[in-house]
Write a structure and sequence with these properties.
Layout (H helix, E strand, L loop, with lengths): L1 E5 L4 H12 L3 E6 L7 E3 L17 E4 L11 H23 L7 E7 L22 H14 L7 E7 L1 E3 L6 H9 L12 E2 L1 E3 H13 L5 E5 L5 E2 H12 L9 H11 L4 H4 L7 H6 L8 H8 L2
Parallel strand pairs: 1-2, 1-4, 2-3, 4-5, 5-6, 6-10, 7-9
Antiparallel strand pairs: 8-11
Length: 298
């Protein structure tokens, strides 16, 4: 296949590139900072020569968006929203101008679209979306993606949970604090954590590409969420660390300011499950957390 990944220089974009290249597919990356032969400049806001890459391509994957791992100042909130809306809008414009548009367009989204839920699991069909900054970002992002129908292009929004991998994302930080003896529960520890191993993330994307009947929102998450307390205990066990100091909300608030982030990233309960993937027959290599940790921490 011929695959174009917009915003493909981040953790997930790089892992997808490696995955598909190993399978023999051709990958082109759209990035503000091209470094390699298959990198192509784009500003994520305006049409440019990169548009030619979409003509006749098999799959377009858009992973563009300012990281939410920052303080939610007004300037950052505006940048988080605009980076997602602008990139989606300009890709839609480019797709509309193609004589032979991409057969499939996968657009990043987030399991954060669902409300804080500790007991009720969120599926694509029954999940409840709410009204705060993060949820509204996701809703506006998906609206920008789905509002325009592209008759020749199948569209899937990837409602992705925390992706566990050693090369980036949140997992290296979790390991670091655990090995420093700070791997206790965060806040009350009852908040649920939806997660997925990086290999299952890539395999799920490949599965969606192959299953032409799949469209709309899809939860990209392992089938067994667990609480923050359970996750930290499993991680301590795997790292052979016998104790972990808990982090009350008051301490997390101070740490978040010092680290330039927000406590929501640690305290919101994400309780999403992959109903659509399971319904279509996807098999997870790492369905439960202990299997994932055994692979990630040999």
């Amino acid at each position: 296949m011929n695959i174009v990944i917009a915003g493909g220089t981040g953790f997930l974009g790089q892992e997808l590139s490696k995955w598909f290249r190993r399978k023999g597919h051709t990958i082109h990356i759209l990035t503000r900072n091209p470094k390699y032969r298959d990198d192509h400049y784009w500003d994520a806001r305006s049409i440019g020569p990169w548009q030619q890459l979409l003509e006749g391509c098999d799959v377009l994957i858009n992973m563009t968006g300012k990281s939410v791992d920052c303080r939610y100042t007004e300037a950052n909130k505006k940048a988080i929203l605009q980076s997602r809306i602008d990139s989606t809008a300009v890709l839609q414009q480019a797709v509309d101008q193609c004589s032979h548009p991409p057969k499939l367009w996968l657009n990043a989204s987030s399991a954060t679209i669902y409300i804080h839920a500790e007991t009720q699991q969120m599926t694509e069909a029954s999940g409840i979306t709410g009204d705060d900054f993060s949820m509204n970002i996701c809703k506006q992002w998906e609206a920008a993606f789905f509002n325009k129908v592209s008759p020749q292009t199948r569209k899937v929004a990837l409602r992705t949970s925390i992706v566990l991998g050693n090369e980036g994302g949140a997992f290296p930080k979790f390991k670091q604090i655990t090995r420093l003896g700070l791997g206790g529960e965060q806040g009350r520890g009852t908040q649920m954590m939806s997660w997925i191993h990086i290999d299952d993330f890539c395999a799920a994307i490949a599965f969606i590409i192959a299953q032409e009947q799949i469209s709309g929102p899809v939860n990209i998450t392992a089938p067994v969420p667990l609480s923050n307390q359970q996750f930290m205990q499993q991680l301590r066990n795997r790292c052979h660390i016998p104790f972990g100091l808990p982090a009350p909300v008051s301490i997390l608030e101070i740490a978040a300011v010092l680290l330039g982030t927000e406590t929501e990233l640690m305290l919101k309960s994400r309780n999403a499950v992959p109903a659509r993937l399971l319904q279509e027959g996807f098999t997870f290599q790492y369905p439960v957390i202990n299997q994932a940790l055994e692979q990630l921490i040999p």
